[in-house]
Amino acid sequence: MMGLKRYATKMAATTAVAAGLMLSVSAHAAETIKVGVLHSLSGTMAISETTLKDAMLMLIEEQNKKGGLLGKQLEAVVVDPASNWPLFAEKARELIEKEKVSAVFGAWTSVSRKSVLPVFEELNNIMFYPVQYEGEESQRNIFYTGAAPNQQAIPAVDYLMSEDGGEAKRWVLAGTDYVYPRTTNKILEAYLMAKGVAKEDIMINYTPFGHSDWQTIVSDIKKFASEGKKTAVVSTINGDANVPFYKELANQGIEAEDIPVVAFSVGEEELAGLDTAPLVGHLAAWNYFQSVEADVNEEFISTWKKFIKDEDRVTNDPMEAHYIGFNMWVKAVEKAGTVDVDAVIDALPGITVPNLTGGMSTMLPNHHITKPVLIGEIQDDGQFDIVWETDGLVPGDAWSDFLPGSKDLKSDWVELNCGNYNVAEAKCLGAATN
Amino acid sequence: MGLPPSPKVAPSFYRTYVGVLMKRFILFYAFLPFLLLVSPLISQAETTDDIEVYVEVLKSKSTKQKTEAIQNIAKTGHVRAGLILEAFLGGKLYSLKENGAIVIINDAASDIEISNAISGEDLGVATKKQIKKLRINNKLRGVVKASLAELQLSHPDKEKRMAAALSKFKSAGSSDIPLLENAIASEENKSIKKILIEAKAAAELSSNDSAIQLAAIKIIEKRGDSQALNLLTQLSQSAENEQVKNEAKQAVGRVESSLALWDISQTLFYGLSLGSVLLLAAIGLAITFGVMGVINMAHGEMIMIGAYTTFIVQEVIRNSMPELFDASLFIALPLAFLITGLIGIGIERGIIRFLYGRPLETLLATWGVSLFLQQAVRSIFGPSNREVGNPSWMSGSFELGQMAITYNRLWIIIFSLGVLFMLMLAMKYTSFGLRMRAVTQNRKMAGSMGIKTGWVDALTFGLGSGIAGIAGVTLSQIDNVSPNLGQSYIIDSFMVVVFGGVGNLWGTLVGAMSLGVFNKFLEPAVGAVLAKILVLVLIILFIQKRPRGLFALKGRAVE
Question: Which residue range(s) make up the domain with B212?
Answer without folding.
Answer: 167-240
